[in-house]
Amino acid sequence: MIKIAEINFNNGLAAGKNRGLQPLEVPAMNDTPSIDSSSPSAAASARPGAVPITVAYGDGIGPEIMEASLRVLLAGGADIAPETISIGEQVYLAGNTAGIEPSAWDSLRRTRVFYKAPITTPQGGGFKSLNVTVRKSLGLYSNIRPCRSYAPYVATRHSGMDLVIIRENEEDLYAGIEHRQTDDVYQCLKLISRPGCEKINRYAFAYARAYGRKKVTCFTKDNIMKLTDGLFHKVFREVAEEYPEIENEHWIIDIGAAKLADTPEAFDVLVMPNLYGDVLSDVAAQIAGSVGLAPSANIGEHCAMFEAIHGSAPRRAGQNVANPSGLLLAGVMMLVHIGQPEAAERVHNAWLKTIEDGIHTYDIFKPGISKVQVSTSGFADAIIERLGQKPAKLDPVTYSGSGEAFPVPTASPRKPAKKVLVGIDVFVQSTTPVDDLAVKMKSGISGAYDLAMITNRGVKVWPQGLPETFCTDHWRCRYLARPDQPFTLEDTLTLLQGLNRAGVDFVKTELLFTFDGEPGYSLGQGQ
Ligand code: NAD
Asked: Is this structure's pTM higher than 0.90?
């Protein structure tokens, strides 16, 4: 057995430093159980003592691009021992709605490094996103997506583009908590936590410092979502103060996205909540040249996963034509992560040289720019032939000795705020006119509080609503404690009992608190 800290499992920058993770007993290659022989080239090439990694060949083009990528990584000197697990379509169709067998978690928890080809999510309901499951189960909170253009060798309108999107990976609307509440209305909860904001914003600044980047830009929509996106922005500002040498700026997401699509060279490192990062990292990869070129790393305090950003491209499957670059460059990120920067550098520079030599797969092949159109395996062969070479025109990469290692950031402990109950929102289903509804909602009142307002889809419609406001069957009725009157949980229960007796069809409640005197709830539009 070897200790994982000795093999430099970490968040992945310079080699040879233990970033303070708990040592984990992992089997060395010669006593590693269950290496699947379905990865013959990879398993045959692993030497005793090599770093175990969990590999999934995925669906569609996955097996072809994984085979090609592992072949290049091993030829480039990667000292890895792949263990293969099955995930994806076959597992889904065998009745496992998570798309991953329980036994696969054993390998992931043992190796803590997952190299994953894309998978196909079967059409139809009932299947959970495997990516979201893996990211959240393993706490992979930071998604890092470098997007660089390779002009003039890969066609793009943005020759100077070289940015990294750091996307929060676990929270936001991706909590996947959805409810149908009334005939008309469905809801998805957007959850943003302070620890989540601290970790991802710290990661972005630590990454920028380690890689010598000059600026971190935050995108949110905090002019509308003042509490959730507002928290993300506030924590961004707090963390930025710890990095005075790094420029920081914030853009409202809509105009920020427009600027990113138009002038990506104006950005360096970008940090943003989950949904915005999901959308904009695909946009950034596409305008850099092709989604087929972009890698991604998913990093957590205990584990990491590396994959291409594209999907399984089923229509191209089995034809040996797909571009393996996204997955291969994810493998380069993985090598840096496990402390093998020399191999990472060798492979990445050989890849750049291959691109520069005009040896291209169909998706980036352009007559006049490209020289030879190659297959997936032919592209891998061309990179292997160039191992040891550097690009002449494109900037070569340097990983060995570059950057300062940084521990995967964690959240700081905080003193809990003083929380005071000041009211309750009661959501009801109703088709009666709002004035009649207000009379009914007041009938439950028997304490030191009042019905303060009723909103429909967030817009105040009582008192003094506008007749033009379109209303659904879903009403939020806000009760607030009278000034200086104590308001307790008992009061809310008494209220709900009264409403129940009055025949009110309530579908949900939210308690309203202040935290250290600050309201922990938003106002209604027009309130
Ligand atoms: P896709 O990324 O698979 O394909 C989009 C387009 O890009 C297609 O025209 C495809 O041919 C092309 N393309 C993608 N990767 C390429 C490559 N390496 N080389 C050349 N061309 C490439 O997106 P999609 O069609 O929306 O999704 C297909 C399947 O992939 C779906 O089941 C989806 O759920 C899944 N998916 C998986 C992941 C993942 O596992 N990480 C990510 C996205 C989509």
From this structure: no
Average pLDDT of the chain to the nearest whole number:
88
| Element holding 64 (H helix, E strand) | helix 62-75
Q: How far is CA 279 from CA 165, 300, 486, in A?
A: 11, 21, 46
**Rounded distance, CA 330 to CA 304, Å?**
11
Q: Rounded mean pLDDT of 406-424?
A: 92
Protein residue with least CA distance to atom 31, ligand 1: 120
Please state whether the peptide bond connecting residue 463 to the residue before it is cis, i.e. omega within 30 degrees of 0: yes
Given a contact cutoff of 8 angstroms between Cβ atoms, the answer to whether 165 and 256 are in contact is no
Are 16 and 342 spatial neighbours (Cβ–Cβ below 8 Å)? no
**Tokens (6 digits) for 89:** 């379509």
| Closest to 161 in 3D by CA, of 347, 45, 289 | 289
Instruction: Give counts: helices (H), strands (E), the chain.
Output: 14, 22
Give the residue whose CA is nearest to atom 37 of ligand 1: 311
Bridge partners, residue 506, by sequence: 428
491 secondary structure, DSSP code: H
**Is the Cβ–Cβ distance between 145 and 270 less than 8 Å?**
no
pLDDT in tens, 269-283: 999 999 999 999 999
47-51, 295-299, 335-339, range with the lowest pLDDT: 47-51
Q: Which of 310, 316, 374, 376 for mutating ligand 1's site (highest number of atoms within 8 Å of CB)?
A: 310
Q: Which amino acid residue places its CA nearest to atom 7 of ligand 1?
A: 313
Is residue 403's pLDDT more than 60? no
Please state the φ and ψ torsions of residue 364, each to the nearest 5 degrees: -115, 5
d(CA 428, CA 473) in angstroms, rounded, equals 8
Are the C-beta atoms of residues 65 and 105 closer than 8 Å to each other?
no
Looking at the CA of residue 130, tell me the nearest atom of ligand 1. 40
What DSSP character marks residue 174? G
Distance of CA 312 from the midpoint of ligand 1 (Å): 4
Give the model confidence (pLDDT) of 132-187 as tens digits.
888 888 999 999 999 999 999 998 999 999 999 999 999 999 888 999 999 999 99
Q: Quick one: tokens of 95?
A: 């009745």
Does ligand 1 have an atom closer than 6 angstroms to the CB of 312? yes
The C-alpha atoms of residue 58 and residue 90 are separated, in whole angstroms, by 10
**Does the Cβ of 307 fall within 6 Å of ligand 1?**
yes
Q: DSSP string spanning 380-418?
A: HHHHHHTTT---SSSPPP--TT-S---PPP-PPP-PPPP
Query: Could you read off the pLDDT of 14-35 as tens digits, one per residue?
Result: 333 323 233 333 333 333 333 3
